[in-house]
Amino acid sequence: MSSFLLFALLGLGGGAVIALLAVGVVGEYKASGVVNFAQGAIAMFCAYCFTELRSTGELVLPVVILPHRVPLARHGLDTAPAVVVTIVYGALFGVVVYVGIFRWLRRAPALAKVVASIGLMLTVQALAVIHFGTAARPSARVLPTDTVTVFGATVGRDRLVLAGIAVVAAVVLAAFYRFTRFGIVTRAVAQNERAAALLGWWPVRSEMATWAIASALAALAGLLAAPLTSLTPSTLTLAIVPALAAVLVADLSSFTIAAAAGLLIGIGQSLCVKAATTWSWFPQRGMAEVLPFAVIAVVMLVRGDRLPTRGETNEGRMPRAPLGRRPFLPLAVFVPVAVAFTVATSAGWRAAVIQSVITACVLLSLVVLTGLVGQVSLAQAAFAGLGGFLLAKLLGAAGVPFPVGLLFAGLVTVPLGLLVGVPALRIRGINLAIITLGAGVAIDAFVFRNEQISGGLAGVSVPSPTLFGVDVGISGSHAGDYPRVVFGLVAIATFTVLAVLAVNLRRSATGAHCLAVRTNERAASAIGINVAATKLLAFGLSAFIAGSAGGLIGYQQGRLSPESFSIFVSLMLLSIAYIGGIATVPGVIFAGFALAPGGLVYTAMERWFHLGEYQPIVAGVGVIASAILNPDGVTAALNKSRAGGRRKAGATIETVPTTNAPVLAAGRA
Amino acid sequence: MSALLDVRGLRVAFGGVVAVDDVSFQVDEGTLVGFIGPNGAGKTTCIEALTGYVPHATGRVVFDDHDLGGLAPHRRARLGLVRTFQSVELFDDLTVRDNLRAAANRRTWWQSLGDLVAPRWHDDESAIDDALELLGLTDVADALPAELPQGQRKLAGVARALTCRPRLLLLDEPAAGLDTVESVELGERLRAVVDRGVSVLLVDHDMGLVLGICDRVIVLDFGRVIAQGAPEEIRSNADVIAAYLGDDVAAAAPGGAS
């Protein structure tokens, strides 16, 4: 039994990191109503900065193109000054992030807040990849490495110190917010900014201070925790998932509960590792990642309401979903152009077009779910992955025609979509984004990293698609014949069919019901719309589209590996769809061609300027800017500038007097 | 003959605060019933409870011989018990006409799947045109809600509720924000609605409107029914006057306890 105790104590280290991140997220949410998905990424970046300070004495700034290394000393700094510099650096990071981004999103809808913080997460992570590389690196130790014995278990003192720091931070912050004038002002500002301003409080100051403290805590967590595991751009970044679970346990409000929950989740994750080595029936992989998701799911289901309660108003406006007078016109223009391009171009460009079209296929799954029904999902890559892997596993050897294969890949994904959709019946907005993020991570860890499903490092091979016995796969009989035109046509045909489904949905009565649910669930149910069924329909359809697209990815790659469907792919998909215009088909066509990694513009940038590595930064910064400046997306903005005349028509309608209709006679007739 | 809506012992408590306490009343087929009371009397909470938005409400509500206990809001709406909202709540992405069409069309999930392949609207366009005309919205049918003045948005909310084919309309302060002329006109339109066989429960502060057009009036104060009857009886009822004028006697009146 004492070895379980040992693992529980070891878990305090990870738990402390989770707790420190969670405490920061709670503070940021209290101050400005934003759940910061980038908290882990900030910790990660600061941890890298700390190791750079220790080894070279240079401070690495989160910028590209501009000079980003500032020498503070001629050789590596000592631990104490490096810690101080890193914490100050973290605090400034928080201030910049708040002033530059979240200050502007106070009254934005949940979707805008979520995509902005995801954009920040992607940006920071991409900066880390560019500046520090992806190889794991050892990190300088800060805490003492000697051991102590607790109840017979010998454990590194650093774990205990870390846990202690997390507890102290939470208690001090809680006391600070409850008892000091600063805390009271911050709470007042968060509840009613205008009233607080009328009393002479400058809201920006208290919010800025909160973001500084929260980010400084993230920096502290990063530099203390990095030595416990090896430092990569994604490990600490993904610590946000268990941290968000802790934040939800704390109901987004209690520092101390968040810290306690964070520590417990860390201990739980460590015990999962121990259990896997002790009991053969215990899943060998993924349980540590499933645990936070389970916590999130339970908390949400206990707390959620079926319908928003009275007074819970929808803040802000969702991206427009215009239908247009000729809803199929964009497709009618797109298809011939894409076909011509596929036929006429050389191999490299054709591969880019195929990649663009396939990405647009996956993005269509966001149009029906997030665009039309307003349900934020960060699990789309998981849906696509499930479709792809199940196609490879179950129909791999069968040699079925590709439409059957893709239909199969879509249909087998529907149950997962419905399952992820069930929590959406009771929860909405940012909380839904959190639970789908947790689900995406859990599916990635538990299903895709399961070697029996994904074939381990080698991946699983997907046989070439056929149609009427003819091979329509991406690679031909000889090596130079790649990618083949016919596969490009397969991709375009698949996109067209899926896009017609999405457009049909938008222009049907069901589509009107979807938009009604998106705008106002209470009012939708008041006119007899079954809100739950509408959401589940959207989740099911979205999973179908993503699963089919995943099958197409399988055909495209020939060999599938989990990396194609990681949680970061989901984040990327949501971001680029949002930039293009998440509620329309032209929006995702734009996103597929102009923004997708490996897409047409990406390829051009890489070929001509060698700038492909900046794609994640373009996507990250782009989605932040979109959330603040242009939530309708690029394509809608282009349309608006064309449709000046139609606006005027609206203006004349406004001047029609309200009381001129001969109603009563007609009414009594 | 049983009443269209029969409410017995309706009670809603939020924590320790009793918002609606032992409320009983009936609405007969084809009548226009006023539902009035000072601010905070529990009128909107009553509507929320009757239409299923307050799951923990207790008491017995029978509508058109259906016991509504535990039914979800959309099911009650489909039975013909349709409400409007104080704060309008139109669907901003849809034109006024499409707001009505969304209400006129019902979808089962297999019909929705059919929509993906062959989108259909099972409209009774004439019913929609009728509702638009009845509320004087024909000329603005293709405008987006944001392009309309507040008064017309309110009317659009009523029109949308009408296209749900209600047996009983629960209107939550449709006249708030209207000027006197508009308010009088709204009253005449509501009478026209009732004349077509739709019963109406009208919540409003505008005493002139309510006492002017209603067949019967129910008065709520501190969550309790303090009077009900014909408008002329209500006009002279001592409890009602006390409740509205804030007479000290009001504290001792029935329902003053909570």
In the sheet with the most strands of chain B, the strands line up as 6-7-8-3-9-10
Runs of chain A with pLDDT <50, length 5+? Answer: 645-669
Fraction of residues of chain B in helices? Answer: 25-40%
Query: Helix/strand-derived class of chain B?
Result: alpha/beta
Q: How much β-strand is present in the residues of chain A?
A: under 5%
- What is the typical, i.e. mean, pLDDT of chain A? 85
Mean pLDDT of chain B, to the nearest integer, reads: 86
Q: State the share of residues found in helices of chain A, binned by percent.
A: 55-70%
Greatest interface and its participating residue counts: A-B, 52 and 69 residues
* Multimeric organization: heterodimer
Order of the strands making up the biggest sheet of chain A: 1-2
Q: Termini distance of chain B? A: 35 Å
Tell me the total number of β-strands of chain B.
10
Main beta sheet of chain B, described? Answer: 6 strands, mixed
N-to-C order of helices and strands of chain B: EEEHEEHEHHHHEHEHEEHH
Q: Rounded to an integer, what's the Rg of chain B over CA atoms? A: 19 Å
The coarse silhouette of chain B is globular
Summarize the SSE layout with pairings.
The complex is a heterodimer of chains A (669) and B (258).
Chain A: H1 2-32, H2 39-56, E1 58-60, E2 69-71, H3 79-100, H4 110-132, E3 147-150, E4 153-156, H5 157-179, H6 181-191, H7 193-198, H8 203-225, H9 235-238, H10 240-249, H11 255-278, H12 287-303, H13 329-344, H14 347-373, H15 380-394, H16 402-421, H17 429-448, H18 451-454, E5 460-461, E6 466-467, E7 470-471, H19 485-507, H20 509-519, H21 521-526, H22 531-557, E8 559-560, H23 567-580, H24 585-595, H25 600-609, H26 615-629, H27 634-642, H28 644-654, H29 663-668
Antiparallel strand pairs in A: 1-2, 3-4, 5-8, 6-7
Helix pairs in contact in A: 1-5, 1-8, 1-10, 1-11, 2-3, 2-4, 2-8, 3-8, 4-23, 4-26, 5-6, 5-11, 6-8, 10-11, 10-12, 10-17, 11-12, 12-17, 13-14, 13-19, 14-19, 14-22, 14-24, 14-25, 15-16, 15-17, 15-22, 16-22, 19-20, 19-22, 20-22, 23-24, 23-26
Chain B: E1 5-14, E2 17-27, E3 32-36, H1 43-50, E4 58-63, E5 66-67, H2 73-79, E6 81-83, H3 96-104, H4 109-117, H5 125-134, H6 150-162, E7 168-172, H7 180-195, E8 199-203, H8 207-213, E9 216-221, E10 224-229, H9 231-236, H10 238-245
Parallel strand pairs in B: 3-8, 3-9, 6-7, 7-8
Antiparallel strand pairs in B: 1-2, 1-4, 4-5, 9-10
